[in-house]
Amino acid sequence: MTGMTLSVDLLATIALELQNSLSQHDRFQRLVNSLRQLLRCDASALLRYEASHFHPLATSGLASDVAGRRFKLADHPRLEAIARAGDVVRFPADSELPDPFDCLIPHHDKLKVHACIGLPLFAQHELIGALTFDDLVPGKFDGFSDEELRLISALASAALSNALLLSRLERQSLTLPENARQAASPVTSEMIGRSAAMQQLKKEIAIVAGSGLNVLITGETGVGKELVAQGIHRLSPQANKALVYLNCAALPENVAESELFGHVKGAFTGAIHHRVGKFEMADNGTLFLDEIGELSLSLQAKLLRVLQYGDLQRVGDDSSRRVNVRVLAATNRCLKQAVEQGGFRADLFHRLSVFPMHVPPLRQRVDDIVLLAGFFIEQARVRLGIKQLALNADAIAKLEGYSWPGNIRELEHTLYRAAVMVRAAYPQSALFITPSFINLPEEPPGPPQASAPRDAGHEELQGDLQAATRGFQRRVISATLAAHQGNWSASARTLGLDTANLHRLAKRLGLK
């Protein structure tokens, strides 16, 4: 191997491409694709460093679920070695440190990575990320000098540093306090997803966070409404104050008022001391009222008074107390319908829904399923003490073909159950989850389709549900493309999909 001195032109081309008006993700994807081509290796990855974790920003040659994984340094000694190094890290082929990407290079018989180098990325001597290159052939990178690899590191560092700077400037444009900007995106409450629906939701969160308005978050059970509330609070001027949670559906009627507003000693039997309610706990901060639609009408009236005037009375207390609380409410019910039926106060509904937000169900953002699967698989791997855990392509197809009525929560439980089952069946270091370990209930038939004409090519739905679903998707996409003379953008609009998502779906279905 003659080294990279013959590829200076390609490096210059890569640098110029990074200046093109692409989305941030596309820019990073182009970077890792080009660098993988430059080093002629099996896999490459660009990772962002934050809060002792590495977050994949773009990968090439790795399993699709890697993008959703979050690598904690304490669980990945090889990544920790890269983070602690100030320069190029070359791992010997016989290194005993487990590689986080073992078993995650698809379409290869070998499961263990043998050649690996890591490049820590810095901005003003602060670690901001890393580049990794992996190959199944030992010694693959021996022909590349450290000086050549440092050029790549400098190129990637500049690109990532500029992207992070732009992100900080965007947050500053929201006139948020410094503490709120620094508190952004902790791993524990991260919203995973790159679909158009998720990008729109994240944009709405950024818009409303600094406004101080009350927000009504709607969506089906298990879609992540609490994560939305956490995201709003984290980016708000109240970020350094308390975020207090209360599940209204779990409150018995006789204690609900005390939970919300507190009580004084002797107010009722069992009130042996003063108690501070959730509103007082959230003073100058944020109160998240989950399942707000389950509150009784009498409590709704008392809640409305606090929202209108900012004062409350503890149960059994004649004096009022002033509070300054931002309320975020969530429900899986249609409150408009509840208002019409007399089950929810119209004035409270309008007071809560100053800025309504809807969290889309998982079935409307299929492309996020593989990312979420990677996120949960990595968590399960660590919790169960498995050396490596991966999904094969058929398992991913099965996940993407299911409608997930329980949404993200159901996906999480399904994958944890699969991880437990595969560990019990194959007690070895590296494990693959196949479709047989993914137990999903049989889906109820959908509503009848009005005026759905059958054509000669429409066969009866037979066999397993996944195959039938993929066949139906192929027919619909093909028919839509034909109706638009092969125009993918117009077809995507008709189907309610992002154009890039339609291309990826068509590729998975064998239409491209």
Characterise the protein shown here:
- Keywords: ATP-binding, DNA-binding, Nucleotide-binding, Transcription, Transcription regulation.
- One of its GO terms (molecular function) is DNA binding.
- This is Anaerobic nitric oxide reductase transcription regulator.
- Pfam families: AAA_lid_14, GAF, Sigma54_activat.
- InterPro entries: AAA+_ATPase (IPR003593), AAA_lid_NorR (IPR058031), GAF (IPR003018), GAF-like_dom_sf (IPR029016), Homeodomain-like_sf (IPR009057), P-loop_NTPase (IPR027417), Sigma_54_int (IPR002078), Sigma_54_int_dom_ATP-bd_1 (IPR025662).
- This protein is an alpha/beta fold.
- It folds into four domains: 4-172, 2-Layer Sandwich (Beta-Lactamase), CATH 3.30.450.40; 187-360, Rossmann fold; 363-437, Helicase, Ruva Protein, domain 3 (Orthogonal Bundle); 465-508.
- It has 18 helices and 15 strands.
- The chain has a six-stranded antiparallel sheet with strand order 3-2-1-6-5-4, sandwiched between helices. A five-stranded parallel sheet has the order 8-9-12-7-13. A two-stranded antiparallel sheet has the order 10-11.
- α2 (24-39) packs antiparallel against α4 (146-172).
- The longest helix is centred in the first third of the chain and has 27 residues, at 146-172.
- The model is unreliable at 1-6, 175-188 and 446-463 (pLDDT under 50).
